[in-house]
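S.,

As promised, the NAI run. Input:
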Amino acid sequence: MKICCIGAGYVGGPTMAVIALKCPDIEVAVVDISVPRIAAWNSDQLPIYEPGLDDVVKQCRGKNLFFSTEVEKHVREADIVFVSVNTPTKTRGLGAGKAADLTYWESAARMIADVSKSDKIVVEKSTVPVKTAEAIEKILTHNSKGIKFQILSNPEFLAEGTAIQDLFNPDRVLIGGRETPEGNKAVQALKGVYAHWVPEERILTTNLWSAELSKLAANAFLAQRISSVNAMSALCEATGADVTQVSYAIGMDTRIGPKFLNASVGFGGSCFQKDILNLVYICECNGLPEVAEYWKQVIKINDYQKNRFVNRVVSSMFNTVSNKKIAILGFAFKKDTGDTRETPAIDVCKGLLGDKARLSIYDPQVTEDQVQRDLSMKKFDWDHPLHLQPMSPTTVKQVSCVWDAYEATKDAHGICILTEWDEFKELDFKRIYDNMQKPAFVFDGRNILNSDQLREIGFIVYSIGKPLDAWLKDMPAVA
Ligand code: NAI
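Predicted complex:
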């Protein structure tokens, strides 16, 4: 059997590498229109950072795993074609700012129809609106010259930072297909691929639309938990309760469960906001404005939390950060990834820059070039293939990036922790304090530091959702 995956990104790359590793009898080709991305997959410096990924790729690359820009050739030869291309939020026209832009998906489907010479199973791996499979099916069948296509929805639930672990041991694999004999046959064929390593009872099969909606629903529920605990964090600060204690207490309830209850500066990543906006749009289109409003609130609270954080920083530092050096520790949207798409750090940095701060940024996995791109790119522009993104945006002069936390914090007035990297917990904060301007502030946007120890050193500390320092108490939290 031959598999081809269109789109060698955060999903296509790791997913296919794991399929190749677990299915030595299957030949897997991952193709992309981005030449530098494919070159990186074929080099020692993979285009994405994921713990354990290097190992998996090294074991299979050149044996049954290939990365190539010869898109048409590999699609033509494949029995199963996964499509894992970008599905950005539309920025123009009907549904702008909400609906999914299916340009890349549609062009992939047209190409599959054009080049195919044998029957194929086409698998939706990208997150798409409900009923996309039906639209894609129409494109394929109207252009097929008699070739038969079966379309399946197989949304991906991996989390960046733990992608390899999640792929090795998924909570579930979801396969949606047409409820016809041909549809069932295709579902069984894809099931057979996953059954190489996933226990049968964890492979769920549904109809196409349930599978599509389940992915949007899962992300909406996950993001909603974060917004719920973040909403509580604001109330904790106002009342003197401690959000960590509240989370722990409610998480012990088996109906609620302990995961995904950490208060923070906000969620980020390429999916949560995009997928909820998409869900909101689908609800509106289906005449369900109340349901749309309900989910929209998850994003509003996330934006509120990022604003609230910026306002805390500015108001604590005598209501201005103009020309003050602020060290930003962590820029990626979570630890163990270099991915900065929709990271809360972007909005926090922009907020501080709006008040004329000077920023010194350190993240172990994010380059200066990436930070500059993120701070100058327009909303949603990031979610397009690399060669279609704006070339060289103007650099933000008030921002510098360094490769060391001690350098970033030297002479700084304040520190913002924006990503929960483990290494930040091990820093020598006495040394950092001695080299900072006084009073020295720490704003812990991830609640990873021991605030009592920091206070003993002399810092003024703000931790999200925790009882406030006397210093911060009378400062307005939201302007
Ligand atoms: P990505 O941006 O990292 O990768 C997409 C790749 O597709 C890019 O390398 C691009 O050059 C390529 N591409 C676009 N059009 C193409 C075409 N016509 N032919 C060949 N290659 C083409 O995106 P990522 O993060 O891998 O996401 C892909 C899809 O998976 C999206 O729909 C996303 O919502 C979904 N998803 C993402 C998850 C994540 O954690 N990043 C998790 C689950 C789903």
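The longest helix spans residues 208-239. The CA atoms of residues 113 and 145 lie 8 Å apart.

- D.
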